[in-house]
Design a protein that fits this description.
It is built from four helices and 14 strands. Strands 1, 2, 3, 4, 5, 6, 7, 8, 9, 10, 11, 12, 13 and 14 form a 14-stranded antiparallel beta sheet that branches. A hairpin with a 2-residue loop joins strand 3 and strand 4.
Length: about 270
Amino acid sequence: MQNKTTLFLGVALLAVVVVGGGWWAYDFVQGDTAAPSGPITAIPIAVNTVPAPTEAPIQVNQPAPSEAQATAIPTSAPVEPIATTAVAAISESGLVIFQISQAESEASFSIFEELNGQPKTVVGATDQVAGQVALDMNDLTKTQVGVIQVNARALVTDNDRRNRAIRNFILQTDQYEFITFTPTAITGLNGPAQPGQPFTFQIAGDLTIRNVTQPAVFEVTVQGESATRLTGTATTVVRRSDYKLTIPSVPNVANVGEEVTIEIDIVAEAASS
């Protein structure tokens, strides 16, 4: 009788551990996540009014925010106005600041996944992307790009469970709300922009995902639709392992790709001074 009681208690204890562990795992991977802290706004670009030589990459005078700064950016506050002296300098140099419009722009990622034995391309997207570009259509060598931010808490795929796993486990968005790209150099631009014609170039910089920063290069195509409106696409491919992004073990998911394509489809409007 004592042996049966001991066996019963052992089984009960094991069940508690398993169930408790299961609930912990569920909460860790599938539990609720924090909502975006507020509407995302652009970090004002630090415009350098002295053009760089055309034969060298255009150096972007834009320091990278620290991890603490990136996670503490007051997204609910309006964009700070540019100083009066900066506005005058921009006017003299022919530069116009364009600001990404969230209503018409989208940041997304895509990655291969094998789900229930079937290949699938998973796409996650959000309109919570912000940034500024300084552009002179008559002299593209003056182009400057500010810090680009994406609110990782707002990324959505076609599956709620996957969304929670991405936010809780992969990107840990409660702690690391923003993905940031801080440009350091621009190459491939020269001369004036041709009306209605797209132009392509490359932006090198530091891409920060979660708490890891790695160099990345975006291939960019931009077209000026008018003097006050730009459209364009910026794309890069990164490796998950470079950013220490591990995938939780989930039933029915046999394989997840290593390469992640990041794309930003941009509509930008001239910012008022």
